[in-house]
Amino acid sequence: MRKITPSLCAAALALAVAWPAMADTSQKPRADKGSGLRVEETTEQQNALFDRTRPQRPQNNVKPLFTISDSKSRFMMQIGGYVNPIIGWDLGNVVNTIDFIPAEIPVPVTKGQHSNFFINPLHSKLAFQILGMPGSRHEVGAYIQMGYDGSSRAVKLHYAYVTFANWTIGRAPTLFQDGNAIPNTIDPQGPNGAVSTGAYALQFKHRFPCGFGLGLALELPTYDRYAGKYWGKDYPDLDGVLGYDNATQPVPDIPMYIEYCGSGLNHIRLSGIVRNFYYYNEHDSRTNSTLGWGLQLSGNLQPKGPLTLYYECTYGKGIGNYIQDISVMTVSYLPSDSQIGKMDASRMMGWLAGFSVDLPKSLTLGAVYSQARLWGTSTYDSGYRYGQYVEASLLYNPRKYVTFGVEYLYGSRTGYDRVSGHVSRVQGMVQFSF
After folding, report:
1. Bridge partners (DSSP) listed for residue 412
2. In degrees, to the nearest 5, what angle opens at C-alpha 265 toward C-alphas 262 and 271?
3. Looking at residue 242, what is its pLDDT?
4. Residue 74 neighbours by CB distance under 10 Å
5. Are 275 and 293 in contact (CB under 8 A)?
């Protein structure tokens, strides 16, 4: 990702646009007679138009409160974001990031690190979105989102893409991700078994009037793979001798989905992905490839009233960079014991189940359980067999632009030797949106 140097200027511009109107949202839209531009509080209709091409995962879905448009609504623009300092404590062990990642829980506990206090505002975001000819079949749009990554004060580019009709090109959420199936959490990382990442992509998405939809994409592949020596069991004379090296990747990842959407958030999606990983085989002094694939079932269910259910289950081989917990490890592709110089795609799975309930007095209660799991990787990483993630939160949203929240998190990491580590985190948040 690139550093964005004029971040302070962009933030100042956004606040300059938003602050006067926020002072009194009852005012009527103000028009600049010279330019024909107007700034107004975003309506539900406008929000629906913008929402079609925004990232859908709650942690990435920045919804500005104000919209700039011309007098004939031939274009609309939003500049907005949020600032959300988080304050909390790790208890029993320490995860040294604002993202709660079970795979990074120390096993055993590091001496002197049984608890930790932190304050971190480094997941604040700023987004720009423009629509031309909104709502028409000639609609064209652009979206840019930038912010921090939780650990560095350098501003980074998260997303930058252009949309036209059913097409999207640029850096966008991967098509293999079902953002609506991931529940909202104060924790910026979210469930450890969820599929959530960005990709440089060319995507096609279409929704039919009957409620069915489909998508297909070509995405630039990234691999969290082992790069080193063979340490298998079948060829001991090659231990520490035979190596594997990187190679260029001439074939894109190909994710796809088919879904059915009912009223509200009721939807079900079946997704798949095919990828071909290339590596250099030092035994034969040539470039080889091996196949990776994944399947995912995901969706939401709103059975009655304010209750929403979330579910997602992903299984496959060689898709570690898509599953949150596994993406921090280099185990997607490992040396094979069946053939000298070959690499195999590792089996892996991630899943989650959660709910949220809208309560009276602007309160929302939510909880989620998630797990990520590996098979057959003990030779090269024995410290992780599966990780667990438990979250419960209560959010209070007294105004459109202010949210308060408290959250409890529990995470555990278990290795192939059954040795495990765990940590609890209690944290609170105040978020100001504009």
Report:
1. 388, 422
2. 80
3. 62
4. 13
5. yes
pTM of the full structure: 0.87
Tokens of 216: 């297909």
β-bridge mates for residue 350, sequence order? 314, 372
Q: 70 CB contacts (<8 Å, ≥6 apart)?
A: 36, 37, 38
Rounded mean pLDDT of the chain? Answer: 86
Question: What's the chain look like in SS3?
Answer: CCECCCHHHHHHHHHHHHHHHHHCCCCCCEEECCCCEEEEECCHHHHHHHHCCCCCCHHHCCCCCEEEEECCCCEEEEEEEEECCEEEEEECCCCCCCCCCHHHCCCCCCCCCCEEEEEECCCCEEEEEEEECCCCCCCEEEEEEEECCCCCCCCEEEEEEEEECCEEEEEEECCCCCHHHCCCCCCCCCCCCCECCEEEEEEEEEECCCCEEEEEEEECCCCCCCCCECCCCCCHHHCCCCEEEECCCCCCEEEEEEEEECCCCCEEEEEEEEEEEEEEECCCCEEEEEEEEEEEEEEEECCCCCEEEEEEEEEEECCHHHECCHHHCCCCEEECCCCCCCEEECEEEEEEEEEEEEECCCEEEEEEEEEEEEECCCCCCCCCCEEEEEEEEEEEEEECCEEEEEEEEEEEEECCCCCEEEEEEEEEEEEEEC
Domain 7-433 sits in CATH at 2.40.160.10
Which residues does residue 170 pair with via DSSP β-bridges, in sequence order? 161, 201
Boundaries of every domain in the chain? 7-433
Q: How far apart are CA 296 and CA 271, in angstroms?
A: 5
Model confidence over 291-342: pLDDT tens digits?
Answer: 999 999 999 999 878 999 999 999 999 999 999 999 988 888 888 877 777 8
pLDDT more than 70, % of the chain:
87
pLDDT in tens, 225-263: 666 555 555 556 565 666 677 788 899 999 999 999 987
CB 350 within 8 A of CB 194: yes
Collect all residues with Cβ–Cβ distance below 8 Å to 258 and sequence separation of at least 6: 212, 213, 214, 269, 270
Query: What percent of the chain is predicted at pLDDT more than 90?
Result: 57
The sign of the torsion formed by the CA atoms of 28, 30, 33, 38 equals: negative
- Give 224's pLDDT tier (boundaries 50, 70, 90): low
- Exposed/middle/buried for 271, CB within 10 Å: 0-12, 13-18, 19+? buried
